[in-house]
Amino acid sequence: MNDTKDRLRRVLVESLRLDLAPQAVPDTGLREAVGIDSVMGLEFLIWVENEFGIQIQDEDLSVELVDSLDTLAAYVDERAAQTAAARD
């Protein structure tokens, strides 16, 4: 999951054009720490979908998903595993 979190940090910085090193992105409290609003959150999640080759389900969209790298990394890993299993 650490690799996933590292990739998520990089995607967050790139997608939102943050003047911040990826390593400086905290694990939790992202909305407050980097000022993510709802539009920025959706843009970030679109980048996440493209980076990991997954589809985030509409019913899974939540504030918690974009506020915690731990939560998002677990979700991404689960979706990636499901996507890989569906291809097999």
Topology:
Blueprint: H1 2-15, H2 30-34, H3 38-52, H4 63-67, H5 69-87
Residue fraction in strands: under 5%
Instruction: Give the SSE string.
Output: HHHHH
The portion of residues assigned to helices is 55-70%
Indicate the structural class.
Answer: mainly alpha
Biggest sheet details: none
Mean pLDDT: 94
Domain Carrier: 2-80
InterPro entries: ACP-like_sf (IPR036736), PP-bd_ACP (IPR009081)
Pfam families: PP-binding (PF00550)
Protein name: Carrier domain-containing protein
Question: Could you characterize the architecture of this molecule?
Answer:
By secondary structure, the protein is mainly α. It has one domain (1-80): ACP-like (Non-ribosomal Peptide Synthetase Peptidyl Carrier Protein, Chain A), CATH 1.10.1200.10. 66% of the residues lie in helices and 0% in strands. It contains 5 helices and no strands. It has helices at residues 2-15, 30-34, 38-52, 63-67, 69-87. Helix 1 crosses helix 3 (38-52) and helix 1 (2-15) crosses helix 5. It starts with a helix and ends with a helix.
